[in-house]
TrEMBL record:
<dbReference type="InterPro" id="IPR003599">
    <property type="entry name" value="Ig_sub"/>
</dbReference>
<keyword id="KW-0393">Immunoglobulin domain</keyword>
<feature type="compositionally biased region" description="Acidic residues">
    <location>
        <begin position="35"/>
        <end position="61"/>
    </location>
</feature>
<keyword id="KW-0732">Signal</keyword>
<feature type="region of interest" description="Disordered">
    <location>
        <begin position="28"/>
        <end position="61"/>
    </location>
</feature>
<feature type="domain" description="Ig-like">
    <location>
        <begin position="162"/>
        <end position="253"/>
    </location>
</feature>
<feature type="signal peptide">
    <location>
        <begin position="1"/>
        <end position="19"/>
    </location>
</feature>
<dbReference type="InterPro" id="IPR013098">
    <property type="entry name" value="Ig_I-set"/>
</dbReference>
<feature type="domain" description="Ig-like">
    <location>
        <begin position="258"/>
        <end position="346"/>
    </location>
</feature>
<dbReference type="InterPro" id="IPR013106">
    <property type="entry name" value="Ig_V-set"/>
</dbReference>
<dbReference type="Pfam" id="PF07679">
    <property type="entry name" value="I-set"/>
</dbReference>
<protein>
    <submittedName>
        <fullName>Limbic system-associated membrane protein-like isoform X1</fullName>
    </submittedName>
</protein>
<dbReference type="InterPro" id="IPR003598">
    <property type="entry name" value="Ig_sub2"/>
</dbReference>
<dbReference type="InterPro" id="IPR013783">
    <property type="entry name" value="Ig-like_fold"/>
</dbReference>
<dbReference type="InterPro" id="IPR050958">
    <property type="entry name" value="Cell_Adh-Cytoskel_Orgn"/>
</dbReference>
<dbReference type="Pfam" id="PF13927">
    <property type="entry name" value="Ig_3"/>
</dbReference>
<feature type="domain" description="Ig-like">
    <location>
        <begin position="64"/>
        <end position="158"/>
    </location>
</feature>
Amino acid sequence: MELRIYLLYSAVMVLVVAARSSVNGYVEDKRESNEEYGDFLGDEPNDDDTLNDADGEADEGNTENIVIVTNQKIYNVSVGDSLTLDCETSPPGIAVLQWLHNDNIYYLGTIKTVSDTRLNLSKNGSMTISKVTPSDEGEYKCVVTQNKPLTLRHRVVVISEPIIRELEATNNGVVVEGSQLVLSCDVTATPPPQIVWSRQRQGFNENERLRESDGIFNLNSVTIEHAKPEHSGKYYCYAFNGVGNAQAEKEVTVLYKPRVHVHRSAINTAPGARAELQCSAHGDPTPYLTWYKDGSSIAEDPRYVIINNGSQSTLVVVPKADNDFGTYTCIATNSHGVHNKSVELVQRPVIEEVEADGLKLVWKIHSHQPLEDIRIQAFPLNGDNADPTNITVPLPETRGKVYEMSHEVNDLPAGQYEVIVKVKNNKEWSRNTNPVVLNIAEQSMLIQRSSVFRGAASSVAQSTTLLSTTLMYLLIRML
Ligand SMILES: *[C@@H]1O[C@H](CO)[C@@H](O)[C@H](O)[C@H]1NC(C)=O
Ligand SMILES: *[C@@H]1O[C@H](CO)[C@@H](O)[C@H](O)[C@H]1NC(C)=O
Ligand SMILES: *[C@@H]1O[C@H](CO)[C@@H](O)[C@H](O)[C@H]1NC(C)=O
Ligand SMILES: *[C@@H]1O[C@H](CO)[C@@H](O)[C@H](O)[C@H]1NC(C)=O
Ligand SMILES: *[C@@H]1O[C@H](CO)[C@@H](O)[C@H](O)[C@H]1NC(C)=O
Ligand SMILES: *[C@@H]1O[C@H](CO)[C@@H](O)[C@H](O)[C@H]1NC(C)=O
């Protein structure tokens, strides 16, 4: 191949010399004489050659009147189009040209040195490339072959709208929690495209753009070092470059061990009263749920009914004896692990979350057994006295199984308190509730006090009770 090009090049040089001699015959003659007397006439000031060429080497220099007329240019061309690169010389028709692309010779004179059928040379020196591909991009040189070569440089920019060949993800998008997830968008586009990554999380409608904090971004890939369950969903690669845009999507599933959630961690019931214990689990693949009591499976026990529905399980229990109460455990299993949570079936009162609305506390009591004592304990947060203040709450008048309670904490000195609720039924005391913080300010107490009298009928009734109690006390003292 090298040899072939060399031979071609030699052939062209011969052609060049031949062309010169025929066109500038008289110059050749002169040159010959110069060569003859070169040593003597080297410093001859009247000699045209030495005027321009001090080193006396490129003797033809001043005799070559060939100039390149075309200016260098940047050609923007779309894939598939045809492109004509000009190299107009003057005087026309005599120059022997070479065309090079990124220093690969395409033409030596009129001889094509590559077997690319898309190339064509015109008489005026321009080279045409049909059906342009991205690999045609780069620098093109048109060289006028002579002792002192002239070079014209063109730059070709192949523009193409982004084409996404593939959006790839680690293990085809199925990864285990904690492992690495790499998404790479195989896109071709000129100029190079910008890529925007986004995802639509499983079960969500909106498409959120991935941010710096979501992963490590490279040229056309994004790496999430430790995949999490919430990373499951559809990933999008959107590429744009001013010429056009393209988008591809890929489904990603992050497999993870189950996580069990119980709706209530304690359920009150009484012998003979039906109770439903509910648990649900997340996990991918969808976990399988079973129930245990005191370390052994109750799946086959005819005393229990288990209703499984997808990722939810309900255990129906009708306790008969005391040993039917206790701890029931919901166990979720999938190929990536096991997780459990327990529900206590109890006879003590169960208090649902206490909430504070201003100075009013609201809570719910579950107790099949009759209630005997309800109290609020207020622990001062910023006092030296750690002893709680006990506020007794009147028992509900009617018996039930669920009691909706509310009580306004009016009788505490100003300060900050941590407040818990305790309830006793005929079996046991309840467990302590999570503390609620109450801020009792001087002003808010005044507002609260006045609002009591303007407030609801029940509050007024309560205050009236207070008033009558005070009157009674005064009356007794007076007697
Ligand atoms: C060629 O494209 C580039 C962007 O790729 C642009 O900046 C330039 O102006 C374009 N030139 C012509 C002659 O269209
Ligand atoms: C090259 O040019 C010649 C003459 O102009 C024409 O016949 C031929 O089809 C062209 N070839 C290509 C590939 O354009
Ligand atoms: C040279 O010829 C080709 C077609 O043969 C033409 O497309 C091109 O414009 C010409 N170039 C100049 C500079 O005239
Ligand atoms: C299962 O759960 C779904 C939704 O949580 C509910 O629509 C469906 O009725 C349930 N099926 C049974 C048999 O309980
Ligand atoms: C529930 O999980 C804990 C902690 O992983 C484990 O010690 C216990 O044995 C599990 N309980 C059952 C019934 O599998
Ligand atoms: C409130 O009751 C607790 C026990 O339930 C007791 O330790 C505490 O001293 C009581 N506080 C007051 C001020 O009587």
